[in-house]
Amino acid sequence: MSINGAMLAGVSGLAANAAALSSISQNISNVNTVGYKRVATEFSTVVNTQAAGVSYSAGGVKANTRQFISQPGQLQRTTSSTDLAIAGDGFFVVTEKSENLTPSDARLFTRAGAFTIDELGYLQNTSGFYLQGWPVDADGNVSIDPSDLNRLSTINVGKVGGAAEPTTRVSLNANLNSATDLDPDIATYTQGAMADYAIDPANGMKPDFTIAVPISDSKGGQQSLTVAFKRSADPNVWHAEIYGPDNSVVGAGTPANLLKSGNVYFTADGRLDVTRMSDPANNPLLDPANPTLSLGASNAAAGPKWATHLGVSAQDIAFDLNASAGGLTQYSSTSFVQAVFTNGTAFGNLTEIQIDDNGNVTAVFDNGVMRRIAQVALATFPSTNNLTEVSGNAYRVSQNSGTYNLKAPGTGGAGLVAASQLEASTVDLSAEFTSLITTQRAYSASSKIITTADEMLAELINIKR
């Protein structure tokens, strides 16, 4: 019985070392696989029940495969902005199809972040899995649910169209020459005279100084408004008007292009007189506390508004005369414009996709506008090493791994997302080749057990002869 037991122990050694060879082969073949986690075969003894007074009966050995999924790989820099790695714990959530996902569709987890944009604009890795994340709502916010995979959607960067931002703020930094000659006809000035002059120089009154202000409408169209100034008989008061081309704006009265008119007041030291400008009785051009120029939508019944043929929406523009460095001044120097600060942008096309450490996917346009599209979701597990491996260098939940917990990158123990980087395989070739040698020798030794047991049985049979 002991000879047969020795032979069976040798057979178990052959099987165990063959399993070890399989895991080593798997590791070596995936030495360049992005995000691959090495596996190892560990041995444990098998002990047969021993009866008193009976010779020892060998049980042998059995092989158990152990996964080192929690072991992080080295991050390596790439040139693609959609290559992603995780610096820390967590897995990307991926699906096998990009659209029409249902609760019954499998959600898998992977560290393989070599994503590219497919023909439909979805982010897909080299194994064909699609990256999932939380979409951004109309207000630019993300609603994170840590336990509902169905709240995730496939991240699509191909459906992002052009972008434009309307102007909402204007700041003027300019000087009006206090020594400007007084127009002899200033006594006949009426509000709208300078706007009328812009339409037909034969009418109205020529401004002493004008400032052109570029404006972007809600469609990204480039418009131009003019702020015109005329010195009054009061040395610290200027008449001012804001108007636009008669083909782009419609005023509230006459002339048709006049949007707003009033006075601009200065102190004796040349600064804007905020006190007088804040008194409605002084007919100021703008109230410094609320310097808003409101333009109605193109379809508004009355002005001031955008022209009907533009078809744009309403727009409130804060005209700050005192906010920027220097602001609007009146010194005894040449009238000049130091700067006109405006926000808003013309229509722009998508040029780049950027993904930050927190997993925010942002579209960058050639007009400088940046628009957040989605946020990458990461999943963590109580027992990462007990996940079940599936083809494509991905994993699924098992009974021993515990359930997932969805987190935004960098929160709740989840790692940060590293763009333009990939996680290297955790395989160490030198260690694998060493294991390959020892496994080969162990296999040969196990086969020698069988050979020796066979020779002993042959001697036993020969006794009968």
| Strand residues, percent | 25-35%
What structural class should be given to the helix and strand makeup? alpha+beta
Distance between the termini: 21 Å
Number of helices: 4
Helicity level = 10-25%
Please tell me how large the radius of gyration is: 39 Å
Low-confidence stretches: none
- What is the β-strand count? 32
* Whole-number mean pLDDT: 91
Largest sheet: 11 strands, antiparallel
Shape: rod-shaped
Summarize the entry for a quick read:
By secondary structure, the chain is an alpha+beta fold.
Topology:
Blueprint: H1 2-29, E1 39-45, E2 61-67, E3 75-77, E4 84-87, E5 91-95, E6 107-110, E7 115-117, E8 123-125, E9 130-135, E10 153-154, E11 163-165, E12 169-175, H2 193-199, E13 209-216, E14 222-231, E15 237-243, E16 249-250, E17 258-265, H3 274-277, E18 292-295, E19 305-306, E20 315-320, E21 328-329, E22 336-342, E23 345-348, E24 350-355, E25 360-365, E26 370-376, E27 378-380, E28 388-390, E29 394-396, E30 405-407, E31 416-419, E32 421-423, H4 429-464
Helix pairs in contact: 1-4
